[in-house]
Design a protein that fits this description.
Number of helices: 9
Structural class: alpha/beta
Shape: globular
Radius of gyration: 17 Å
Strand order of the largest sheet: 1-2-3-4
Largest sheet: 4 strands, parallel
Number of strands: 4
Helix content: 40-55%
Distance between the termini: 31 Å
Order of helices and strands: EHEHEHEHHHHHH
């Protein structure tokens, strides 16, 4: 994405993928491009997962089982204008509203949240999604020294003393999205 000259009109992604899941991908993209219209397409989506994705800014939700050309075109048109699109033939909007309401009521550290930059949120999401800090630095187009600066600053802001404690704090405060990990068939 950082190498393209023009921002795409719409991103369509699956939820479960080998290197990164759709929830992590959406969070990473939306930290860098908050207005980017994203559609998640999956047979595995639950109403709660849709609410979690809506919480970070995803606009469209489609089921592979019920997908038609007409529904896909409607979804693309809606999200292009920053409107939500939920395939109501596949998902229950009332259940999604309940789940979204539940998510909004969850406690979080508001004062600390307001102090964080989009780069810090992006770093945290990448830290949850990727294991290698060199790879994270490459994705963020920063040096390892800058990455360490983010880590140190985040630990100070959150009063955590380790990477694990920082990640737990980030998950508890809904700063990062964690979905189903890819399971390698070799294990």
């Amino acid at each position: 994405m950082q190498q393209v000259k023009t921002e795409p009109d719409v991103i369509i992604t699956d939820l479960l993928m080998p290197a990164i899941d759709g929830m992590g991908l959406a969070a990473i993209l939306l930290y860098s491009w908050p207005a980017l219209p994203i559609i998640v397409l999956s047979e595995l989506l639950s109403e709660y997962e849709i609410a979690e994705l809506m919480d970070i800014g995803v606009k469209g939700f489609l089921s592979k089982k019920k997908l038609t050309r007409v529904i896909l075109e409607q979804a693309i048109n809606c999200v292009s204008y920053r409107q939500d699109f939920i395939d109501e033939a596949a998902f229950n909007p009332e259940q999604i509203d309940k789940a979204l309401h539940h998510l909004k009521r969850l406690p979080y550290e508001k004062n600390i949240t307001q102090q964080l930059t989009n780069k810090e949120f992006l770093y945290l999401q990448l830290l949850v999604t990727m294991e290698d800090e060199v790879e994270i630095a490459e994705v963020m187009h920063v040096s390892l020294k800058t990455l360490q600066y983010y880590a140190t600053g985040l630990r100070k802001k959150t009063d955590t003393h380790s990477k694990s404690a920082l990640l737990l704090f980030a998950i508890r405060n809904r700063w990062v999205k964690v979905y189903k990990a890819y399971v390698n068939s070799n294990y």
